[in-house]
């Protein structure tokens, strides 16, 4: 049970803690009634180290949607005190903007005096931009987690009440509602961490040249995009194919595709492939699919793709690149449905084993150049490749043409 405190009592108690980590843990416990996650502690420690006042941390927690949704407030907030916190928070945000404007002005002034200052000031500005981005992602993630907790509790309560009926029809509907909630949450996760639909469209437009040679020009191509998601890649290859179908398990993703006029079906990818006739498609793509599958299913997927492709037809796969340390140790695990990273050597061997030829690997989507170590030494090159290199890779293969 949460203990009710006034804002003065809370602030006084928390400020008595000299250790920042103890302060953060106690703040979460007193205000939100739960333990802070490791990511939350790491982010807020970074903010405190950067000079953000403890009062700002307390204000953000008190004004968070999660605190507002608590059945019993952990801290008594009068209307006037809430207004004061909002004014304090907004004033701090205004000061941050003024600081950014001052930095930009100093950048221009220094450049006018001596262009040599430009490089140093640009790096400083980039650090501020990255700090703003991390701040935004943190609070998006916090809100998504709070929303998911509310949904989980709601569906748990509903299921508990309805399961008493033991009606199979009712139970099936309950499971369908739960799946729908998870589908919508995954769509939100994609938006927060992978990027908006427009951003991904632009990214794929920039990489489509890598695989254009696989798009046959002498005939009308029939294609399928497995795990089509929101339909970004599906939309791009529609311009090269006479008929292309997207398949995805997620109902919310399929709704997105249909809303953009794309042909898409909801269903299990492997089951859909197994229903297709031999040599019935000229191109099969699967972007960010294989890392979601246990190996047995991945092996069967590649087998079925080869069977369904026409002679001379091609497969295009894209998956996170575990050679990038940032991907392998952090970014990969932001998606709770990921099973295991797939190194390019494994995917290459799988395609070879099932009969594909002309296999090519294309590293794609590196970090921005501004994040790299600005040196030409071999050590710097290796470091940049391992940390800021390609975050994904595409691998392509072709089914051998029929022997004449």
Description:
By secondary structure, the chain is of the alpha/beta class. The protein folds into three domains: 5-140, no CATH class; 143-194; 197-399, 3-Layer(aba) Sandwich (Rossmann fold), CATH 3.40.50. Helices cover 56% and strands 14% of the residues. The chain has 16 helices and nine strands. It has helices at residues 7-15, 20-31, 38-49, 54-62, 65-68, 79-113, 116-162, 168-194, 197-207, 232-237, 251-259, 269-274, 295-308, 325-329, 344-353, 378-388, and strands at 5-6, 75-76, 222-226, 243-248, 264-266, 281-287, 309-320, 356-366, 390-399. It has a seven-stranded mixed sheet, sandwiched between helices. Strands 1-2 form a two-stranded parallel ribbon. α11 links the parallel β4 and β5 (264-266). α6 runs antiparallel to α7.
Largest sheet, strands/sense/barrel: 7 strands, mixed
Domains (count): 3
Q: Give unreliable regions as ranges.
A: 71-77
Strand order of the largest sheet: 5-4-3-6-7-9-8
Helices, by number, come to 16
* Structure class: alpha/beta
Strand content: 5-15%
Superfamily (CATH H level) name of the largest domain: Vaccinia Virus protein VP39
CA radius of gyration is 26 Å
- Report the CATH topology name of the largest domain: Rossmann fold
Shape: globular
Output the CATH class name of the largest domain. Alpha Beta
Helix and strand string, N-terminal first? EHHHHHEHHHHEHEHEHEHEHHEHE
CATH architecture term of the largest domain: 3-Layer(aba) Sandwich
What is the residue-mean pLDDT, rounded to a whole number? 77
Total beta-strand segments:
9
Q: Share of helix among residues?
A: 55-70%
Gap between N and C termini: 78 Å
